[in-house]
Amino acid sequence: MRAFEVAARAGSFTLAATELGVSSAAVSQQIRNLEDWFGKQLFVRNGNRIALTDAGHAIYPQTARALGEIAAVGRRMLEGGLRTRLVVSVPFSLAELWLAPRLAVLLDGFPQMAIDVRVEDDPVDVVRQNIDLRISYGDYHYPALKMVRLVHDEVLPVAASEFWQRYGQGASLADMHESHFIHTNWGPNYASHPSWADWFAAAGGSRAPDPSHGRRVGLSSLAIGAARLGLGIALGQKVMANADLEAGRLIALSSVSVRLGQPYCAFMLPAKAERADIAGLVELLAGNPAKPHAKPA
What is the pTM of this model? Predict the structure, then answer.
C-alpha cells in the first residue's frame, strides 16, 4: 500500500523507487502483488509513464489518509506524546501581510507556543515534510487531506493618500494615466485572478489599462507594498490591505470589488484536525476581517 501511495503521488515507479530507497522493479512488483490481491488494475502503464485507473482513483485518497495518520501516530510515540512545534506552510504572497498578523494574535494568547512558518509554493508533501497545516489558493491541491475554506477574498483599488492627493484630486480612476496603475503578474500557474480590465468591467466601464505602460509586480503583497510607497494604484486584496486601510496608510478609491477566482483553504491530515492548536489557528484564519471604508470613485 505504501508503494501504491508513493507511485500514485509521484506519477512514476522510478520516482517512487527513489523515495522508498528500492529499485523500480521492486516497486512494480509490489504494485502487481497489490493488484493481484485486489483483483483490480490500479495503474495504466504506457512505457515509463503511469496513470491511475478508476479503481486506483477510488482507493488513493483513503490510502493516503490512512498512511498519513499512521505516520502521525508514530511521530507522537517517538516524541513521547509531547508536541513541541506547530508547522505551518504558506505561499509567498500570504506570509507577511495575512498570516503573520494572525499568528501574532495566536501567540498573544499562547506565548509559549513554538511555530515554524515555511514559505513555499504548491505542491508540498504534507506527510514527509511533517507539515501540520498547509494554506493554499484553491481547494483542489490535496484531495487526500481534510480541507477547510478560510476566505474567498476580493480586490479593490487602493493607493496612498499622498499619491491620490497629488495625482487624483478631481479625477476618476477612468481618467488616470496608464503609468499610475500597478499590475500583479500572478505567474504561469494561475489564470483566475482579476485584472484591471475585470475591475473596470465590474464598475460599469470598458477601460483596460495596458500592463506594459504601468508598474508590474510578481506578488499581491508586493502590489500593496508598492501602493503604500506611493508608486501607483493597486488592486489590493482586502485581507492583505485591511491593516493599511485601517491605519490610513492606504485609502480605498472605490467600493466596487471583484472576487478572486478561488478561495484560500487550509489542508491538514484528518488525524490532526481536532488538535487544539491547529483547530484554534484554523478558526482564527477563517475569521471575517473588518471591511475597509471606501471612498467614492
Answer: 0.66
